[in-house]
Structure formats: structure tokens, C-alpha cells
Design a protein that fits this description.
The complex is a heterodimer of chains A (169) and B (235). In chain A, 58% of the residues lie in helices and 17% in strands. Chain A has five helices and five strands. Chain A has a two-stranded antiparallel ribbon. A two-stranded antiparallel sheet of chain A has the order 4-5. Among the domains of chain B are: 39 residues, no CATH class; 104 residues, 3-layer Sandwich (Rieske Iron-sulfur Protein). Chain B has a four-stranded antiparallel sheet, with no helix packed on it. In chain B, strands 18-10-11-19 form a four-stranded mixed sheet. A three-stranded antiparallel sheet of chain B has the order 12-13-14, with helices on one face. The chains are: A alpha+beta (169), B mainly beta (235). Strand 3 of chain A pairs parallel with strand 9 of chain B, so a sheet runs across the interface.
């Protein structure tokens, strides 16, 4: 028996939502899977994961929009049964949730690099004499970054002697 | 430490990932990803671009303060200060497992090294051994270098082992005991030299040795990015 036009619309709609869910899931999971701590990263998989990471916010957003359009424009008018509508809505909500997660970099949530660092005079700093610091001096301006602080922030975006530098540890 | 300007564009870096336990930075201006240890963009619009190295030192605070009394020290950020690390963070980190290892020459993955990449070669110096020696005369490639441990017995600086403008090998040795203003003397000119590598007495007075950039790093990380490296005391 040939499927009715409404059945065809419903099937097409379900297929779109499924594909969107798979694409978004891959965009969110693959970089997290590859770039996770305590796992060796191969050069090729890292390159692929970084490409996905760069485009995942756009990809997952379009994917979420496509799923929404498919649900509201095709599936809803073609499917009167409430339970099925509920399942389709939940699946679409999941794709939208992935669009939100696609904008989040776990590392950037966890770590707090400094963008506008504050400084105090060497004579006023309450630092143990034997504490280690990373020192830089440019055009007569000297900055010191205590290791205790750098071990937490890891990155300081700074300007020393009119030169923009990034201190890393 | 790197400059953060490329083609006049000032970049702002975030910590955005990890690659074999060396972190990846993302610049918010172009979204490119950069490897911390190399300063090279590995993905994104700036892929392949190289940040310029900014010479830096890892010093004991007292030593730095005596050299830079007018210097500025990074302030704690109060909301995070309770989570700051211990002063021996690099030693504490030795307990953290590794994901890559190069167990050649009996090296352990988290042995702390002073790595030098210069003069067309790479050479790694076991940090603890350098501290014990206090003065190391060695070569990186064909170039003679001098590793000098400061009076604080913690800070290390590296210089080219030749006096600019003076022919012949200088033959440095440590003053024992060190003077407040000098810790080395060179047998060829009889000049005394401070920890900044500048002659403070003798015929070389006013001359400074050329600095060589060294990176304190774990063996596995240094070796991963410097596969041709040799090791002082091993090969």
C-alpha cells in the first residue's frame, strides 16, 4: 500500500529531526571525546576535532532551526496524535539543547585566564622570597607573574612596555 | 611567553583545550587555536602563523625584586585566590599521570628539564642536576653555552659562553664565596660578572653576555616538540 501524503510528510519530518540530532550530537561530542585530559591526542584527530569545535556553534544552530521548522511546519499539521507530537517535540527540544551546548567550550568554562590583569609594586607584594615568578622586561618595564597564580590562571593577556604579550604557564 | 599581535591585530587568548597535556589557546578575535609550547596556530584562519617569542625568566621572587625594585607584580584575583596553587606546583604536578612518554636514556616522563632550542639544535638539561652543578659549561649545537645558577640556588639563566667583542674562550668559574654584586669571574679578562650576565669589574666592565632562552618543562613535553633533542650528561 502506498503511504498517504500525510504519512510521507511525517516520515520526511522525522528523518530531518533524526539527521539534525545526529549531526548536532556529533558536533558536540566529537571534540569533547578527542580533546579530553588524560588521553593521547593524535595529530589528525586533533585537527578534525578543532575544525568541528570551530564550526559547531553554527552547525548546531542551523541543525536546531531545521529541526524546529520540520516539527512546526511539517510534522505538527500532519500528525494529530498527541503522544507522537510529544515525542517529536522532545526530540526537537534535544536538538535545540545541543545547539546551546555547541556554544560551550568546557575548558573555557573551567579555566579563568586574565584579560585585564592588575599589578602592584614589587615592594608592596606579599610574596615569599623563595616563591618562583616568571619575569619579563620590555623597554624598562618589568612584570613578574607568580607561579602560584599562573598555575591557576595559566594565561595572562598583558601589555608590557607598550607591547602586547601573553604570559603562559 | 609570546607577543600577541599578528598583522597589527591584537589577540586575546583563552585556554580552550589540551593536546597531549600541553594546552591549546583560542584567540577570541579570529577563533584560531594555538599551541602553548610552540606559539603556533594549529587550526583556524591564522593556522600556520607563529607568535614571536618574548624572552622571559623563571626566577625566585627575592632575586627578581633585587634586580627590578621598580617592577610590578601580578595581583591576585580575590574571587579565585583561595584556589591558587602551591609554590612548588611544578613538583606537585609530577604525580599527575602522562599520556605520552619517551623513556629513552632512562628519562622519566615528568623529569623537570631546562630545554634550549637555539643555534639549530635542541638540548635538554635535567633541572635538578643543573642546580647541583651551579655552573654548567656545555654546547647547544656547536655553540658554547653557560648555565648559571643564582645565589638563591633556584634561579637559572643561560648565556652564550663568549664575551661579545672579545676573541677567545672566556673560561668562567664561580666566585667562592660569591660577592653581593658578582658570582662569576672569567679567567681570560679577570672580570667579575653578575647573575644578569654583565661584567661589573675588570676590563670587560659594562659588557653583557648574550642571553639564551631556556624553557623549564617536563621531559615528555619537551621531547614531544623537540624530537631531535639531546640530553646533557647522556648524549
Amino acid at each position: 500500500m502506498m503511504p498517504s501524503p500525510l504519512q510521507r510528510i511525517r516520515r520526511r519530518s522525522v528523518l530531518v529531526v533524526l539527521v539534525c540530532a545526529l549531526v548536532s550530537l556529533a558536533c558536540v561530542i566529537y571534540p569533547i571525546y578527542v580533546i579530553r585530559p588524560f588521553r593521547a591526542q593524535g595529530a589528525n584527530e586533533l585537527a578534525a576535532a578543532l575544525v568541528v569545535a570551530r564550526f559547531r556553534s553554527v552547525l548546531t544552530m542551523f541543525s536546531g532551526l531545521a529541526a524546529l521548522v520540520s516539527l512546526l511546519g511539517w510534522y505538527w499539521p500532519a500528525e494529530p496524535r498527541k503522544l507522537r507530537r510529544l515525542f517529536a517535540s522532545l526530540a526537537t527540544a534535544f536538538v535545540c539543547l545541543l545547539a546551546f551546548l555547541g556554544r560551550v567550550n568546557v575548558y573555557e568554562l573551567m579555566f579563568h585566564p586574565l584579560g585585564r590583569p592588575s599589578f602592584l609594586a614589587a615592594q608592596q607584594a606579599k610574596i615569599d622570597p623563595d616563591d618562583k615568578i616568571i619575569a619579563v622586561s620590555i623597554d624598562g618595564e618589568a612584570h613578574a607573574y607568580p607561579i602560584r597564580t599562573m598555575g591557576y590562571h595559566h594565561i595572562v593577556n598583558d601589555v608590557v612596555g607598550n607591547r602586547a604579550i601573553v604570559a603562559t604557564y | 611567553m609570546w607577543t600577541r599581535e599578528v598583522d597589527g591585530l591584537r589577540l586575546t587568548f583563552h585556554l580552550a583545550g589540551i593536546n597531549n597535556q600541553n594546552f591549546l589557546m583560542r584567540d577570541e578575535e579570529t577563533g584560531s587555536y594555538w599551541q602553548q609550547i610552540t606559539g603556533r596556530a594549529v587550526s583556524g584562519p591564522l593556522k600556520g602563523r607563529q607568535l614571536t617569542l618574548v624572552p622571559s625568566d623563571e626566577l625566585n621572587f627575592a632575586t627578581w625584586k633585587s634586580e627590578q625594585p621598580q617592577g610590578a607584580v601580578l595581583k591576585d584575583v580575590p574571587q579565585y585566590a583561595s584556589e591558587y596553587e602551591r609554590k612548588d606546583w611544578d613538583v606537585q604536578m609530577k604525580r599527575v599521570p602522562v599520556v605520552i612518554n619517551f623513556p629513552e636514556h632512562g628519562m622519566k616522563a615528568r623529569n623537570l628539564m631546562l630545554g634550549i632550542r637555539a643555534f639549530g639544535a635542541g638540548r635538554a638539561f635535567p633541572y635538578d642536576k643543573v642546580l647541583k652543578e651551579k655552573l654548567v659549561k656545555d654546547h647547544v649545537g656547536a655553540e658554547p653555552v653557560l648555565l648559571v645558577v643564582g645565589d638563591d640556588n633556584q634561579s637559572v639563566r643561560v648565556f652564550r659562553d663568549r664575551i661579545p667583542g672579545v676573541d677567545g674562550a672566556p673560561d668562567f668559574y664561580r666566585l667562592s664565596p660569591p660577592k653581593p654584586v658578582a658570582l662569576l669571574m672569567d679567567a681570560s679578562s679577570g672580570s667579575e660578572w653578575n647573575f644578569q650576565g654583565c661584567a661589573v669589574t675588570g676590563t670587560a666592565k659594562g659588557i653583557c653576555l648574550e642571553r639564551v632562552q631556556a624553557l623549564k618543562d617536563y621531559w615528555f613535553d619537551w621531547r614531544n616538540y623537540n624530537p631531535q633533542t639531546t640530553i646533557w650528561g647522556k648524549n
